[in-house]
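Lab meeting, item 3. Inverse folding demo.
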């Protein structure tokens, strides 16, 4: 049949029968972790047997069958997926105006979940941009109704238009899926990068998982990796197929070594970066239910026991549970009793926690237990395996150690450049200082060892002073220069405190040059470095103890303080 033609066999008739199983062709696309390649979810993608989906939807709209088509497509995907024993969440999509309709419109969806043997928590309903114009309140009410039944809530096809960010924040989604068209021009389109950064920040605040779509090339994959996106789908990872897959056809390309991730928080990874799907049971479940889960999933290390609102209360560790039920009369004693009697209190941390916090939880008995990760509403959004966290912390500490200067123990300029650019992009002013140690006399009298000791003493003085000035940081520049970034009005007080600390540490004399960078200017780190170099040469003529200050383009003047 040709979808473009209307009439007895055209799209209107096709759309009217689309909600029946014989008119559905659901396909399944893997959603993978972009770092490890593990399949973490499956998306049900409805496809018409002939023509394009847009034509079918348009025809359904003309015959007032859009909601039936929408729900029928999602229900068909759920029923088909039920036969494959998915061990990961299934994502289906509904239009916002379908979600905003009366609850009876979703009866077929709920029936499909029951028929397929899923629990509602195994299904994430993505709310796509509306074709009609439902009010925000109706969409929120519909989302609350789905959440009250246990479904995960997602927002789909988020891009430059159609999705008010304020509405997304109020929905508090579990998943936010990016518009696939965003991938194609991400590196070349500054507007797309701004959208991605804004949505990523919103997801971080709401505890939502960000999923990239349309990843077709290695360049697309690297672009999303650079922006800190950890989940994605697209032709590179696997085209939609007739049956869901639990692993990708091949390994993902390794990250390019020189590519640095762009993060809203430059301090390093958070626990949410290592999240894996959690297997959850209600805290009222029996030992028999838990035993079935462990038997069906040999790789399952633990089960999170939650309240009705998915707040973790206990953790059932595999080995301890199986030992308990394998003992004499163990299964007979515990099969019909609440499994919580055999569980330990849940080890819980927020998604944005520092990975090192995970290493401080519990005693030796539970050192290898999984950690339940919760969003800002206290809902379990995954687990972190302690092995993953240990490897990440070890790699992080190793990288940080390599980045420190061997003499001063201070980080290199790249770390400070990132802090400075974030301060400037946020519209904050900055005082950038160059601390130049006078090591010439030490070279003549004590040789190289004396120079190293003198530079180390200057670095200690700087490190002692910075904690008194919130938000200040320092790095080793080149040679005998240290660089300091602080608030716009802090240089006079900081310079005075630094000179007192230099005296206490018996450090060499230093000349300090401070560049005042007021808020609102687009100047970047490279421009700041050029200005500091210019001022440094002029300041050196004033002597080894000079303390000068200047704004961009001005000659240096004695620092007022």
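The presenter then showed the designed sequence:
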């Amino acid at each position: 049949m040709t979808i473009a033609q209307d009439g007895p066999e055209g799209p209107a008739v096709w759309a009217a029968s689309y909600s029946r199983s014989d008119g559905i062709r659901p396909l399944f696309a893997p959603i993978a972790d972009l770092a490890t390649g593990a399949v973490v979810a499956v998306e049900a993608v409805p496809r018409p047997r002939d023509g394009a989906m847009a034509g079918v939807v348009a025809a359904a709209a003309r015959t007032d069958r859009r909601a039936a088509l929408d729900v029928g497509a999602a229900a068909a995907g759920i029923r088909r997926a039920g036969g494959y024993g998915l061990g990961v969440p299934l994502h289906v999509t509904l239009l916002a105006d379908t979600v905003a309709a009366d609850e009876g419109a979703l009866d077929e969806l709920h029936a499909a979940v029951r028929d397929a043997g899923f629990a509602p928590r195994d299904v994430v309903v993505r709310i796509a941009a509306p074709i009609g114009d439902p009010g925000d309140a109706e969409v929120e009410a519909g989302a609350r109704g789905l959440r009250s039944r246990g479904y995960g809530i997602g927002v789909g096809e988020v891009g430059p238009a159609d999705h008010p960010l304020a509405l997304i924040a109020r929905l508090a989604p579990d998943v936010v899926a990016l518009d696939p068209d965003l991938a194609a021009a991400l590196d070349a389109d500054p507007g797309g990068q701004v959208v991605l950064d804004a949505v990523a920040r919103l997801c971080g605040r709401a505890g939502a998982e960000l999923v990239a779509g349309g990843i077709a090339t290695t360049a697309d994959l690297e672009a999303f990796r650079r922006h800190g996106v950890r989940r994605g789908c697209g032709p590179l990872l696997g085209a939609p197929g007739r049956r869901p897959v639990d692993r990708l056809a091949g390994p993902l390309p390794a990250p390019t070594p020189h590519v640095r991730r762009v993060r809203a928080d430059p301090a390093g990874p958070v626990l949410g970066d290592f999240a894996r799907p959690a297997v959850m049971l209600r805290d009222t479940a029996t030992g028999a239910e838990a035993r079935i889960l462990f038997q069906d999933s040999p790789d399952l290390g633990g089960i999170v026991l939650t309240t009705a609102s998915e707040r973790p209360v206990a953790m059932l560790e595999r080995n301890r549970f199986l030992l308990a039920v394998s003992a004499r009369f163990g299964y007979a004693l515990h099969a019909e009793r609440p499994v919580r009697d055999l569980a330990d209190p849940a080890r819980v941390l927020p998604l944005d926690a520092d990975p090192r916090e995970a290493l401080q939880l519990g005693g030796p008995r539970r050192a290898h237990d999984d950690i339940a990760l919760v969003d800002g509403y206290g809902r379990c959004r995954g687990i972190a395996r302690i092995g993953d966290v240990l490897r990440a912390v070890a790699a992080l500490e190793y990288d940080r150690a390599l980045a420190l200067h061997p003499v001063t123990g201070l980080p290199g300029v790249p770390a400070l450049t990132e802090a400075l650019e974030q301060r400037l992009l946020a519209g904050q002013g900055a005082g950038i200082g160059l601390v130049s140690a006078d090591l010439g006399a030490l070279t003549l009298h004590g040789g190289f060892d004396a120079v190293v000791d003198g530079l180390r003493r200057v670095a200690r003085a700087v490190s002692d002073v910075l904690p008194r000035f919130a938000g200040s940081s320092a790095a080793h520049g080149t040679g005998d220069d240290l660089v300091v970034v602080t608030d716009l009005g802090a240089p006079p007080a900081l310079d005075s405190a630094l000179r007192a600390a230099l005296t206490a540490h018996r450090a060499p004399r230093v000349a300090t040059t401070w560049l005042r960078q007021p808020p609102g200017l687009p100047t970047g780190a490279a421009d700041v470095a050029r200005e500091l170099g210019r001022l440094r040469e002029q300041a050196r003529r004033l002597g080894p103890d000079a303390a000068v200050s200047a704004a961009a383009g001005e000659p240096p003047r004695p620092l007022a303080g």
